[in-house]
Amino acid sequence: MAGGLDLSRTTNGMGDVAIRPTRPPLVWLAAGFVPVIVLVAWRVLLSPPAPTGGLCGDLLAPTVVWRLGLAVAVLGAVAAMAAFLHADRASLLLRWPSATIVVVSVAFAVVVGPLALWLGPILAAPFFGPVGYALAPQGMALTAFLAALVIALANGTLEELTFRGALMGWGSRALGPLGANLLQAVVFGVVHVGADFTGDPLPVMLAVGVGGLIAGVIAQRTRSLLLPIVVHAAFDLPLYYAFACRLG
Q1: What is the pLDDT of residues 194-230, one digit of tens each?
Q2: CB distance 206 to 186 below 8 Å
Q3: How far from each other are the two terminal CA atoms of the chain, in whole angstroms?
Q4: What is the rounded distance in angstroms from the CA atom of residue 214 to the CA atom of residue 185?
Q5: Distance CA 39, CA 222 (A)
Q6: What gap in Å lies between CA 176 and CA 141, rounded to an integer?
Q7: pTM of model > 0.70
Q8: If we measure between CA atoms, which residue out of 223, 216, 214 comes closest to residue 181?
């Protein structure tokens, strides 16, 4: 502390040390909410496209365009807030974990991705109604899978960076690691409640919140978002099929 300001030491790459003021902890917490606000605003102002069949294998299907636009908007908000805070990548947990965690991440994606495609319609039915989709339309199986992979990675990256990266990582300066993890888990669960539910949304909100809490613990323990992003993307693999490859 110097004159009431928090100071950080940085180097310019040539060994010279510079001292610059950093933002107060509550400002870091407030900045962590900005990507969440952008995410919610995008969903409210530009509602997700309705599920439809006949577009399976189309890389420019409405659900692809919508989610990529959301990713650009949210990641842009994270970048803007990082510049405002003079935050580095480590504050967002954007770093490579140990080799063991990398191997676990790859193994999880290989095993859980196909299971998610199979179980997705079964688990979604009580809350969203029948969600039948075609996995391999004739002549378009590879294109459809690439589109599904793009959406899954975009969605997993933007949400993990928003909640476990910005909200938890930056919020921990004001709330501590436990408080910030609890906060992001609650917010993560709440923002996943939408008008498209046909059943009681509370179980989904609780399940998503618990999943967010576990992802937060993993991110804090590994000091990286890699495993949470991979897990998230694996579970989101059915999204493209549910929207662009709908049956009936």
Answers
A1: 766 666 778 888 989 999 999 999 999 999 999 999 9
A2: no
A3: 64
A4: 9
A5: 26
A6: 46
A7: yes
A8: 216
